[in-house]
Fold each of these.
Amino acid sequence: MTANPVEADMNFPEDLRYTKDHEWARRKDDRVVVGITEFATDQLGDVVYVELPAVGEEVKKGEAFGVVESTKAVSDLYAPVSGKVVEVNSPLVDAPEGVNEDPYGDGWMIAVEPSDPKDLDELLDTRAYAALVQEQEE
Amino acid sequence: MALRTPLYDTHVEAGARIVDFAGWEMPVQYAGILEEHEAVRTRAGLFDVSHMGEVVLRGPRAADALGRLFTNDLRRLVDGQAQYGCLCRPTGGIVDDVIVYRRAAEDWLVCVNAGNRQKDFEWLRAGEGPGVTVANESDDWAQLALQGPKAAAIVQRLTRTDLSKVQTFHFVPAEVAGVPCIAARTGYTGEDGFELFCPADRAAGLWGALLDAGKGEGAIPCGLGARDSLRLESAYRLYGSDMDDETTPLEAGLAWVVKLDKGDFVGREALLAQKARGLGRRLVGFTLTDRGIPRHGYPVLRDGVTAGVVTSGTLSPTLKIPVGLAYVPAELAAEGATFAVGIRGRAVAARVVKTPFYSRK
């Protein structure tokens, strides 16, 4: 990919933590909610298909837990933390456009009960993630 | 060094996402693939296809020379008519699939795929000799494709030439928005529309004029992403994905452009032999009957064993179902036959269906 001026006005909320693979993680009580960033949705284009794990499955930090597909491309989803899946955003299966429309809200993907709370602290904060995005654009 | 069309700056300024395609920096999308796809199916969309190449054969022996390198029957053409077909190797493998435009009895323009510009030029140059010149004019031409149910009306507004007289797979010289063009009623989307060949240095003006003229009808610029999903719904083959030097037109489902009884041409003997022997594999259209999206390179499975390969696939934006093209063993090629597609280690059920997946009313 080359020149693309739109990233300047992208939103990376301060209350989230990020992976270098463009997932976000939000602490919510004793859970961690997971989705993909606005940058990821912009790179993917229209999301048309989402494949998510079942409730009860274990995910492992840094390993693929699902797949998101646009008209053109397939991308793995990588778990920001290890733990057990306690909730899945199943409406996305029939309405995957939610990922594009509201990546940090209705476009969330799974909620995980983390096995090691420290996982979250090792992720990137907004500033570090924004720097990474900028670097990838250059 | 990446190649760029004369419209590269126009695309970047308009906010297109640029990707590499066959060595070319091309717009893959503007507003989004789904929106652009829908515009072409319901209104009109404008594509920069200047990366396509143009090789021109001229001279009193040009028709014979080209006919010997082309699978279809050029004798059926009159001036101003175009024809789709393949260039084949002696093995029957496909060098490229091309459209030939008969401008005059001694002037034939061959429109070739971007990635094959040099290869095709060299291949066609084998036909050079007394009474035949072969010129690679790819850099001289730009090509804009306005496609969709409103396309013809939009182009008509910009020219005095009566386009209603131009039938599908025919073309006329026409001045469009003051730019001298070849206006061809051809395309790669399954919709009505025109492909306009114009001088490279006039492309930007023509591009802007077409978008302005089509604004009222909702015409928008489109990228290669929508072009790919549109062509796949129409089951048009993509060179390099669905066919290559190792596959024959018979295997690729292009027997309808192979005229074995027209006289000799390069590849004919091999194709005759293959036909007599029977085809081992065939390119078929299929849909998935379970959840998933087929993609290029995924295995076709029969009883858990790889028996073929998916060459193109997507979720059809118009039909909202997964569709794809795949090489399968001949015995699995009939409509209704079932197999599986291996998707990330899962065997997903598939069924052979009629193509095109979508055709306009």
Amino acid sequence: MVIDQFKLDGTVAIIAGCGKTWLEEIASAFAEVGADIIVAGPDLQRIERAAKAARYFSKESLSVLTDLCNAQEVQTLVGRIYSQFGRIDILVNNFNLEFAKPFLDIMEEEWSQVIDTNLTSVFHCCKSVGKYMVEQKAGRIVNIVSGLGERGLPNGAVYCASMGGVIQLTKVLALEWARKNIRVNTIAIGWMENDNAGTMEDPIVKYIPVQRRGSAEDIIPLVIFLASEASSYLSGNVYAVDGGLMARG
Amino acid sequence: MILDRFSLEGYVAIVTGGGTGLGKAMCHALAEAGADIVVAARSSGPIHKTAEEVIKLGRRAMAVPTDVCESQQVNGLVERTINEFGKIDILINNAGIARGIEASPRDPVHKEMGPIWEITDAMWHQAIDVNLTSAFYCCRAVARHMIERGSGKIINMASVGGLRAVRNNFTYCSAKAGLIMFTKTLAVSWARNNIQVNCIAPGVFPGVEVLPSTIQQFARFMPMGRCGELREIGPLAVFLASQGSDYITGECFVVDGAGSIGYAPTGYAPILPIEIFSKE
């Protein structure tokens, strides 16, 4: 039955991320459709909350405090998961350190920090997990970035560069691992709900074709789709879930 | 239950070109997900067969012979659907013809299209009509209904040929590229009416009539080492027709096994040894 292809029964999924992200919602949803979840990141409270949400559906789920910018810590994390679970089917990267500054004012440390958090972490996670996926000859990676990885925004130099870098990395991994039965895709999200949402002062909303910001509920189904067998012939591309922002440009 | 977001229970869908190939595969998938299906195409035989198969899956179905290049017939199709089923939730504009881009039993792997002066006025118009104008007729026909209801899903079947050029294939590539931009314009125009419009850009999906040996010839050029299978289109169509994609509109969903994301040579070419990129 076609709906069965959206399920993740019997899979082991790592949800890695930090910054303004949706670890909890993704972890919970993936667990609901059958996956065992490991949530990894540097924010203890957040990852524990996410793992707790996942455990409602999957008792094996857990969280592991990890500095994802540190190659050694990532390698240790992934090795431990592989020993414990025997396989790694899915990796979701959701890194989103937001940063805005006129280009000439950006300091070198700030540039490095944003690149490290949003891009280099993805490099570390894909490298450590990818090794096992290549051995398994099976795997799915979903990288969540912003639509600003394809478009520009004044003051967004390093943020846009970091997001764009992930999009490009996805394409290369998709090609290198295409014959290893590993699919790698990117999701580009638009303007998401924040503290401004619903107030009169939110100037962005009228520029979004559907006239509202996005919420976790809006993006979760696409993450599930790309992590599941339902997307078996999709790899390498960016798919925007943004209420029509990318279309109107 | 999060899986409910992908269900099409109670929805009514029109699928043009639904008698064969991708269209038929999508009819099956949408029906499995719970939708009733109106199958439209020029030839009566295949669409009736598809409709029967949908009924066997436990859904309602109706076959309506339609030439989508004739706007009156398209309007008639929409009217009949509303009379019979009371509403239209989903429209899939899949009718289209591909010349020089598809694998077929008779074509060698790299069939060359002739030079531009071999394209007659009629050939050009026909390709634009079937691949692009038909989508315009269908979208125009359902527009008021969907806008009044305040909801709707439209999926246009484009192609990677609308994103990457194929030598001498002026008609198909231009029409499909037009369809992609038509999709985005619809999306942006109807976003406030809660109608989501997206397109699918399939890579190489050989039909059931193509010889396995021909498929294999194509397959060795694909990054995944294989072409697409018809069963792999259905789940994507279901996703784009479902509530799960309510915040997705104006997007082009490329489904081609990483075929179009490479730099020349793209995925649709042999993998060259890495040394040639670093010769001094």
